[in-house]
From TrEMBL:
TM regions (residue ranges): 7-25, 37-62
Localization, UniProt: Endoplasmic reticulum membrane
Protein name: Dolichol-phosphate mannosyltransferase subunit 3
Subunit structure of this chain's protein: Component of the dolichol-phosphate mannose (DPM) synthase complex.
Pathways per UniProt: Protein modification; protein glycosylation
Membrane-topology descriptor: Multi-pass membrane protein
Length: 93
């Protein structure tokens, strides 16, 4: 099963449950809060998803490790590759 099918299945399940709750919530003064809550439930879920996603990205950026040794090694490999290409006749800018 691909990720697309998983996400579409989850979205369809959520939409079905939401539609059932929205249709089955009685109309009246005592249930206005419940009806409005169910009506805006997809917005609340989307907002929670966005906050969690931004929090995860911010935390991973904050805790990202610097790899100074790997950077030096990569620079040396680039210099070696440039020297090899120049030796073979390539012109580099």
């Amino acid at each position: 099963m691909t990720k697309l099918v998983e996400w579409l299945g989850g979205a369809g399940l959520f939409a079905g449950v939401w539609a059932y709750l929205f249709i089955s919530t009685p109309v009246g003064n005592s249930s206005d809060f419940a009806r409005h809550f169910v009506l805006f439930l997809p917005f609340y879920v989307l907002l929670a998803f966005a906050v969690i996603s931004v929090s995860i990205i911010a935390w991973r950026v904050y805790t990202f490790n610097d790899c100074e040794e790997a950077a030096k090694e990569l620079k040396q490999e680039i210099a070696d590759a440039k020297a090899d290409l120049i030796k073979k006749g390539f012109k580099l800018d």
